[in-house]
Every structure is written in C-alpha cells, then in structure tokens.
Amino acid sequence: MTQTRGKKPLVVMKFGGTSLGNPERVQGAGEIIAAHAKRAEVVAVVSAMGGVTDMLIRAATEASKGDREHWRGARQELARKHREVADRLLSASEQATVLPRLAEQLTNLENLCSGFSLVREVTPRAMDTLSSLGEVMSATLLAAILRSSGTAAEAVDATELIVTDNSFGNASPLLDETNARTRQRLAPIRRRGAIPVVTGFRGATRDGVCTTLGRGGSDYSATLVGAALDADEVWIWTDVDGVMSADPRLVPGARIIPEISYREAIELSFFGARVLHPKTIQPVMKKGIPVWIKNSFNPQCPGTKIVAVPTDRTPGVKALTSVSNSDLVTISGKDTLSFPRLATRVFNGLHLEDVSTLMVTQSSADNVLCFAIHDTDLPRVKARLGKTFELEMLHEYVGTLEVMPKIAIVVAVGENMKGTPGIAGRAFSALGRKGINIIAIAQGSSELSISFAVKSAEVKEAVKAIHEEFEL
Ligand code: ADP
Ligand code: ASP
Ligand code: MG
Predict the structure, then answer these.
(1) Domain of residue 59, residue span
(2) Are the beta carbons of 304 and 243 closer than 8 angstroms?
(3) Ligand with smallest separation from the Cα of 201
(4) Pairing of β 291-295 and β 259-261
(5) Does ligand 2 come within 6 angstroms of the Cβ of 137?
(6) C-alpha of residue 14 to centroid of ligand 2, in Å
(7) pTM exceeds 0.85, yes or no
C-alpha cells in the first residue's frame, strides 16, 4: 500500500453482498476491517447482505400487484437473516441498540409495501427507498459488530453524503456537493478515530429524497467516497480473486489479471463484467486513486490492481466479456434520406429514451444502420423510432425496423491490442472452427475493444473459443 501523507494511509473498503452472505461472512468482513485498521485508516462501504436487494424488489413488485401476503413472508425472512447475525455476533448491549433499528427498517418495508398494494403501483422513487433498506440494515449491523469486538465504528447513511439528481433507479451524483458533504459528515467520526461504515447503493436528492445508483451500485459508492476523501486506495472485496480474463461462470479456466488500466476496467464493466459497476472508475480516474479487487473468501490473494498505466504492456487481448439478452435492430432509409440524417434522428431517439447502444455498424452506400441494445430497451426504442419515422415509414422512405432477437455481444478488451495486427482475424477463425456465425462486428478506432455479435445460445462457446485462441 502506498502512503502519500505523513500519517496512516486512507483506504476505502467496500464489501459486496457475496462478502456479507451469512453470519460467518459478516464476521469475516469485520475481521478484515479490524486487521487493516491497525495499519491504515479505514472507511467501510457496504452492500446489503447477499440476496436481500432482490428480496426487497420482489416484495415491492408483488405488493404492487395487490399481493398482501408476499411481503409479510419477505419481512419474516429478512428479520430472521439479520437477527441471526445480531444473535451470533453482537454483545448484549449492542443488541439492545441495534435490534430496534433493524425492526424500524422492517416496519418501513411493511408500510411501503402496504401502500403499494393499496395503490397497485410502485413508483421508481418509492422503489429506491425500499430497495436500499438492506444497506441500512447491513451497515447498522457491521458497525455494531466492530464495536462489539473493540473497534470504534459508526454506521452512516449515504443519503447524508451522496447528493444525486432525481433519476430514480439510476441516479447520477452531483460531485461538488457530494465531495463537500462526505468530507464534512465523516470528519468528526474520523477525528474520533472511529471507522465510518457507510451504506452503499443509496444517495439522496438535494431535497433529501432517497435515490439509488443502479444495481450493483455500491462499487460506485465506494469510489465516490474514496475520491471525496482523497483516499490513497479503494479496495473492493468480492467473491473472486480479482478481475479475471473472462467471467469465471462462463470460462472455468479464466485467469486472474494482476493489473489492468482504468480504461480497460471501464470497457469490461460497461460490457457486462459484473465484478464492477460500470461507473465505478469515473470518480477515481482523474485523481489517479488505485482500485483493488480482492477476494474476501481468500484475503491472502493480492487481487487485481486497477491503475492509469499498468506496468505490464504485453500486446494483445487482455480479457473477454459478454452481454447476453441483447437485440440487433436494423433500420434502412431510401437514398432520398441521407445516411447522416437517418443516423442523427435514430440516435436522437435513443438519447431521448436514455438508451445506450452496445454496438453500432453501418453501411452508408445502402443507407443501413444497425445497432445492438439491451432487450429490455426494445419496446421503448420501437415505440420511439416508430413515432420518429411515422411518415417516412408510411411513404416507404424508411423501411420498418428489423429486429434480430436473442443476440449476445462478445467483447475482447485490451489497451495494447492497438497496433497488434490480426486480432479480429484470429477471433474470426476461432469462432469459425466451432461453427459459430458472427452476425456483426465492430471495432473502435481507439482499438481498446473489438465486439462480435453472435446468437445468445452460442455465447458460452464463443467466449471459450476466443479465450482459448488468445491463451488467456
Ligand atoms: P459483489 O456482491 O461482491 O458485488 P458481484 O456478484 O456483483 O459481487 O460481482 C462478482 C462476480 O462478477 C463474480 O462472482 C463473477 O461471477 C462476476 N464476473 C463477471 N465477469 C468477471 C470478470 N471478468 N472477472 C471477475 N469476475 C467476473
Ligand atoms: N445491494 C445492491 C444490489 O444488489 C447494490 C450492490 O450490491 O452493489 O444491487
Ligand atoms: Mg456487485
């Protein structure tokens, strides 16, 4: 660990749901924090216990359909799960303060779900308040566990730190205000020598209404807090030994990558590598704060260091990722409508629907534009572009949208692919040998990644074939 100031280095440590799955795991997280607190100043950021966010979202959804039983079951299960941790790991005096706070969150759950069932609706705003209750419970518990074992700690609700816009479900932080509030709110706790245990995932608008940073957003919370405090490092504790050359669930032989660049990490996370929330790197990039991915199940393993410029400059592909559940949409115009005009109107439509593309290919000569999107975005895209080109479609200046469903995008990432000839060719041949048809291909001029669209059913085989070809 590098130390940039005279005192102890400051490390923000985030624990994901997998690292807080049961009482043993929560205890393990407490032990990791307490051990490092001897050598570094630690600020902890926590996700909900494993599976809790899914349960909360399901409870809200069922309630909004009028089911008045489901959330009662969820409440019981959540009470049991958190109570088990409290019973096993908290001193009697800590139990006396913590149990009423947990009960309060469960009462919030009941009240909210009861409301949803009455109005038969759950708004994104109310969903954010409900879906992030798990973080409030886990932070409350972990701070109390640390105190029970003699380490001063205080739970902090990130609604007091992270100020966001009001895009509920996927809010964007307002950085200046977030930085100021985070420093201010955590300063007295840090001065007392206590470890702040901050709820991940959630923030609040300027008016104090709870928001969330999108699923998996606690990684982002950690780097936001790290950047606000000018931390020396951010450590993300998860259930794998680091960033791997492919999703280990798809490629069992995937290898740990000791060091990757910020740009590679952004590319991998954007294209579905769940180990990092896609926006995680943004806050720390400018300040050059290193981010480590470490395994809480195997803390001795050094993990992956994410930095501006890695020391290893070996050319070629570094890692693969893939996004399943995508659709390929094709739109073609008659030559009366020039290609730039067609493209402008299509992309403006996507922008208005806040839809991002996973891959874009074009043929100006034929006036054809083809793009891949997440399948959940398809209904909105169809409706928007149908409206945008209503008259042109009526007069057949623009063809109807053609949709190829069940597509996966396989992406090869590596900053040092630049200037290495033959990468696409080798990937093509590897897929060809397995009889996998490439539906579309795209490569940016930055040569940071090459994307291949294949049938969803063939994604596992495709990733394995390319992984083997490049001996990752
Ligand atoms: P947490 O609960 O700690 O946030 P996540 O489940 O969100 O954990 O992220 C960790 C998971 O990310 C791993 O278990 C792994 O299956 C998946 N993953 C996908 N791609 C990669 C990759 N390239 N390297 C490492 N893990 C990956
Ligand atoms: N608990 C939240 C989720 O499951 C946030 C996170 O895990 O990072 O999406
Ligand atoms: Mg995660």
Answers:
(1) 10-238
(2) yes
(3) 2
(4) unpaired
(5) no
(6) 11
(7) yes
